[in-house]
Amino acid sequence: MAQKYGKVYLVGSGPGDPELMTVKARRLMDTADVIVYDQLPGKQILDTMPEAAEKVDAGKHAGDHTLTQSEINDVIVEKAKEGKNVLRLKGGDPYMFGRGGEEAEELVKAGIEFEVVPGITSALAATAYAGIPVTHRDHASMVTFITGHEDPTKAETALDWETLAAFGGTIVIFMGVKMLERNMNELMKFGKDPNTPVAMVERGTRPDQRVTIGTVETIAQISKDQNVKAPALTVIGDVVKLHEILGSQI
Q1: Fewer CB within 10 A of the terminal residue: the chain, N end or C end?
Q2: Pairing between strand 54-57 and 34-37?
Q3: What is the per-residue pLDDT for 83?
């Protein structure tokens, strides 16, 4: 029976610039029977989905999900069981805070063949476009990626803010706009220097990319004043200082 099923591709579309999609991602998108997509790939990429493909909008606008994750899993499995090749199109990389692992587990349970196609994560691409190298010999020899929006069903946070506050490298927070003030307060509570530079990179690598600069102490208010919106990365550390020098070259 499993041989009659279609194959599922969990594809990372990259950070938003269509030219940063991998050749493989582009090829698979152009030949898919079904594309299950959300909004994170961005309009420039979503506008190039082939007309012949069946398209399923999985939503995932900030605070407004058209389908729950469980429903998305069900759709992917159902379409594959119909014998169709399904492309699950995701922003960035499927396994970098993209729930690709959860979807892959469901496909294994259902006995459906799948393949993961990595994408360029916004943690590297958006920061590069903003003129912020996440590592630099003079500023940071370590980098850590965390989520600013954990599973709301968790009884308590899995983030160790005390360790993060003492971390000497660059911290990149995904999906952290809504909880920005809380996150900055947690860092300061555990001793993070309030004057540590912070950048908010909105809509990274896209034509309307915007960078907002502040410090751990000031960025929450500055972001409110500047009306910073998701999708945005929060970058914390001395490497943010390089934006003034390198950002003008982008």
Answers
A1: N
A2: parallel
A3: 96
Q: Which residues are catalytic?
A: 38, 60, 175
Token pair recorded at residue 153: 């069903």
Tokens 């993070």 belong to which residue?
192
- Residue 94 in tokens: 């499927």
SS (H, E, C) 197-212: EEEEEECCCCCCCEEE
Residue 198, classified by CB atoms within 10 Å of its CB into exposed (0-12), middle (13-18) or buried (19+), is buried
- Strands 114-117 and 8-12: what pairing? parallel
Distance CA 27, CA 180 (A): 37
- Measured from the Cβ of residue 62, the count of other Cβ atoms closer than 10 Å reads 14
**What residues pair up with 201 in beta bridges, in sequence order?**
211, 233
Integer Cα distance of 159 and 157 in angstroms = 5
β-partners of residue 50 are: none
- H/E element holding 183? helix 180-189
Length of the chain: 250
The string of pLDDT tens digits covering residues 48-78 is 999 999 999 998 655 555 789 999 999 999 9
User: d(Cα 15, Cα 20) in Å, to the nearest integer?
Assistant: 7
Q: What confidence score (pLDDT) does residue 1 get?
A: 42
Residue among 197, 152, 203, 206 nearest 179 (CA): 152
Provide the whole-model pTM: 0.90
Give Rg (Cα) of the chain: 19
Contact in structure between 116 and 152 (CB atoms under 8 Å): no
Angle between helices 69-81 and 100-110 (to 10 degrees): 40
8 phi/psi in degrees, rounded to 5: -110, 135
